[in-house]
Structure formats: structure tokens, C-alpha cells
Amino acid sequence: MTKLCAVYGVSGCGRSLMPIARQQLAREQDASEIVFIDDALTDIAMVNGHRAMNYAQFLKEQTSEKSVLIAIANSRVREKLANRLSEDGIALWSVVADNAVLMDETDIAEGCAISPFVSITSNIKIGKCFHANLYSYVEHDCVIGDFVTFAPGVKCNGNIHIEDHAYIGAGAVIKQGTPEKPLVIGKGAIVGMGAVVTKSVPAGVTVVGNPARIVEPK
Q1: d(C-alpha 61, C-alpha 95), whole Å
Q2: What CATH architecture is 3-93?
Q3: Catalytic entry in 131, 140, 161, 165
Q4: What are the tens digits of pLDDT across the range 40-69?
Q5: Which residues pair with 68 in a beta bridge?
Q6: PglD N-terminal domain: which residues (predicted)?
Q7: Peptide bond into 179 cis (omega under 30)
Q8: N or C: where does the chain have the smaller number of CB atoms within 10 Å of the terminal CB?
Q9: Which is nearest to 194 in space by CA: 212, 179, 180?
Q10: What 3-state DSSP class applies to 104?
Q11: Which residues pair with 213 in a beta bridge?
């Protein structure tokens, strides 16, 4: 075996992304094995037809090339694991569903997970380890940072800047900005499920509702 691919995480996120990873290798006519990595495992097991092992066991696998998709919803954990993989010389693996739509001038960094029915249109820059769940879209002229997560059905319209570690909840709608004044979702901000964001969101806050408003600490 010359190459081994892995999905890091056997939770719902990992098990949902594994079929997409399989489809991608088939599309590329790549016969590499895909395994699960989960640090809670002590012995190698089988999960949904794939070998599953802990990280130490993965490192011991004899192969000339290894790449890993981090299928962990928590963006801070994704960052920690990405740093560990980098230290160990293991490449981040990007996985894109067969029916995802990527248009012109889409610059997406390593480690992305693009689920089925996602659309990423034109002139977009996205950082590493981006997760875009089912039926989300990113419209033109958006800039998205590292370790950003879109839950299913996010509507990210044009001229929006989303900073590192932001989380956008299921069904949220973000109003289009302008080239002169992009709408900004600040670093680490959380946009609640179904929120309608009509103005920029400061770093680190949580917004909910229509129109979205900041949830004040109790």
C-alpha cells in the first residue's frame, strides 16, 4: 500500500463524511484504503465497513503517504488536530461531494469538507478545515477564514467576510454586503439556527432571531 486516507472522528460527522470520501476516491480512480481515526479506541475495530483505530495505531500503519480529513464539528478541536497532523508530517485531506457545485475562481485551502448539495459560486476565498454541511451555499466575493463551520442549509450571500472559528447554525441567512462594505461575522462568533443576519456581528458573540440580535450574558 502506498497511500492511506483517514476520516478523523467516528461520530455522526465522521460517519456522514465517509461515504463522500469513498465517492471522491472512486471519482479519482484511487484504490487507497480509508480508515477512521478515533482516540477513544483501544483496539482496531470495524465501523460502517472501514477499519477504525486510534491515532497512535494510525501512525504505525506502514505506508509511504497518509492524508486525513478532520471530521470533528468543534472548530477548536479541528485546529488542535490540524496542528498535530502538521507536526507529524501528515497532509490535510479535502473531500468534496460528487454533486457539490464549485464555480469560477474558488480558492479553498486544505482540509475542507464539502457535503452534498453545497454550492460555492465565483471569486471566493476560503481558509483551511472549512465544513459546509448539506444544502449550504456561499455566494460571490466572500472571504471565509480558517476552521469555519456551516451547519445544514446556511445561506451566505455575496460580499460577506467570515472570520476564523465562526459557527453558522442550520438555516441561517446572512444578508449580502457590498464591495465597499462587506458584512462581517467576527472571529469565533456564533450565528444561531434560523437567524437572519442583517448587519455585521462582533467577534465572540452569539446572535439569534430575525433580525439577528446579540444574546446578552446572564
Answers
A1: 22
A2: 3-Layer(aba) Sandwich (3.40)
A3: 140
A4: 999 999 999 999 999 999 999 999 899 999
A5: 6, 92
A6: 6-85
A7: no
A8: C
A9: 212
A10: coil
A11: 208
State the Cα angle at 33 between 31 and 57, rounded to 5°. 155
User: What is the Cα–Cα distance from 115 to 218, expressed in whole angstroms?
Assistant: 36
Residue 91, number of CB atoms within 10 A of its CB: 14
CA angle, 85 then 110 then 28, to 5°: 105
Q: What is the 3-state secondary structure (H, E, C) of 24-82?
A: HHHHCCCCCEEEEECCCCCCCEEECCEEEECHHHHHHCCCCEEEEEECCCCHHHHHHHH
Structural domain boundaries in the chain: 3-93, 97-207
Question: β-pairing, 131-132 with 113-114?
Answer: parallel
Pick among 3.40.50.300, 3.40.50.150, 2.160.10.10, 2.60.40.180: CATH of 97-207: 2.160.10.10
pLDDT lower than 70: segments of the chain: 1
Is 97-207 in the same CATH topology as 3-93? no
Confidence at residue 1, expressed as pLDDT on a 0 to 100 scale = 53
User: What pLDDT is recorded for position 33?
Assistant: 96
Cell of 77: 478541536
Cα 113 to Cα 48, 116, 170: the distances in Å are 19, 10, 16
161 catalytically annotated: no
Q: Beta strand pairing status for 3-8 and 33-37?
A: parallel
Residues 159, 52: Cα–Cα separation, whole Å: 41
**3-state DSSP assignment of residue 8:** strand
